[in-house]
Amino acid sequence: MTNSARKHKTNKIKSIYNNLLAEFKRGEIGYSTIAILGQSCLGSIAVILLLMNDMPTVIKMVQLFLVTVFCMAFNGAVLAQLKSKITFDLLIAAISVSGFIIIMNLA
Predict the structure, then answer these.
(1) Where in the chain are the domains?
(2) What's the predicted TM-score (pTM) here?
(3) Residue 6 or 70, more confident
(4) How far apart are CA 78 and CA 95, in angstroms?
């Protein structure tokens, strides 16, 4: 991949992120409410799959810790009414961690 192709791809991802962030800021109260419900459900699905899987206890507890910390960080950011960018970034992180744990435990 050429340097200009990488820049174009990076700019496109950054553009999508900025558009989503602007939309989140516009309707922050509503989107935060929906996001709390959605990411909590996704986190609980990740935890259920994690606990149903047969793996060493230490690995299971580390994964459980990660899901719990990221989900609670987002919930805390909403309750503390932190800046929109921080809240949105924590939402992306919580969804990413939960999604990654789900994919790891389905395989």
Answers:
(1) 28-106
(2) 0.86
(3) 70
(4) 15
